[in-house]
């Protein structure tokens, strides 16, 4: 058995035990088992494992728990998307990463899988902040970060309300999609809907920009139809005024359960007086991940764009 499978089996066994003995959900059982490991009530078999082996093992246990409870808010960003976001963060910050740390914010942290995948990829070069409204998810994220020793400061709060976070170099976020219920808070945003409820994903883009340094990049997993809805005109106007669109990357359809769930990766840069917009926006489609030749052509296209940008 591979190391990550051994760790998964261990957490799985403990979680099933707590599920039975304490009448809690399997996901709460996973949390309980991580907390017992951190409190040294249970032995930790992952001491000699890599950060990625531990992250993957916990991720599989969480995914199992999510399938069992099927809460609509409980969604995890899959590894393929996390690795792709990490690749782009590395490309856009290549020079800075050579000699300094990168501060990164994920304002919709969830289980932390997206942020921690990126952090493991750029190991030792990122310090991060995560915000999440769901208590169970943020606790799972906190425990995972602690076990893999990634420096993350976490805030359990509504990310659209006032946040005590200094502007960061970069934002990574798999945006929560839907209407934002707190209409009073929405009034503070330029992207507040003129009529009816505002889109949470639009407000998240604005809030992420508020907490990014001038010239910083935002790597956002957006609904594929983001620019096709009736409120898209306002979003376009907002982006034109405050940001430069760098790239719109379509993702392979087979990664999503249905057309309605399809996402794209939008990369924008917060405008800065000392910088300029890219000559050209990178428009590309990630091919099916199993097609190695098409995949290497995709990465080549990114490199050519980067050289001429
Ligand atoms: N990247 C995450 C991961 O890998 O687990 C998944 C993010 S999921 C698509 C969106 C997350 O946003 C959910 O965990 C949800 O609870 C959270 N969320 C939704 N509205 C929020 C709000 N107003 N403030 C903070 N978090 C929020």
TrEMBL record:
<dbReference type="InterPro" id="IPR016843">
    <property type="entry name" value="S-AdoMet-dep_Ade-MeTrfase_prd"/>
</dbReference>
<keyword id="KW-0489">Methyltransferase</keyword>
<dbReference type="InterPro" id="IPR003356">
    <property type="entry name" value="DNA_methylase_A-5"/>
</dbReference>
<dbReference type="GO" id="GO:0032259">
    <property type="term" value="P:methylation"/>
</dbReference>
<dbReference type="InterPro" id="IPR029063">
    <property type="entry name" value="SAM-dependent_MTases_sf"/>
</dbReference>
<dbReference type="InterPro" id="IPR052933">
    <property type="entry name" value="DNA_Protect_Modify"/>
</dbReference>
<keyword id="KW-0808">Transferase</keyword>
<dbReference type="Pfam" id="PF02384">
    <property type="entry name" value="N6_Mtase"/>
</dbReference>
<dbReference type="GO" id="GO:0003677">
    <property type="term" value="F:DNA binding"/>
</dbReference>
<dbReference type="GO" id="GO:0008170">
    <property type="term" value="F:N-methyltransferase activity"/>
</dbReference>
<feature type="domain" description="DNA methylase adenine-specific">
    <location>
        <begin position="100"/>
        <end position="292"/>
    </location>
</feature>
<feature type="domain" description="YtxK-like N-terminal helical">
    <location>
        <begin position="5"/>
        <end position="66"/>
    </location>
</feature>
<dbReference type="Pfam" id="PF21106">
    <property type="entry name" value="YtxK_like"/>
</dbReference>
<protein>
    <submittedName>
        <fullName>Class I SAM-dependent methyltransferase</fullName>
    </submittedName>
</protein>
<dbReference type="InterPro" id="IPR048375">
    <property type="entry name" value="YtxK-like_N"/>
</dbReference>
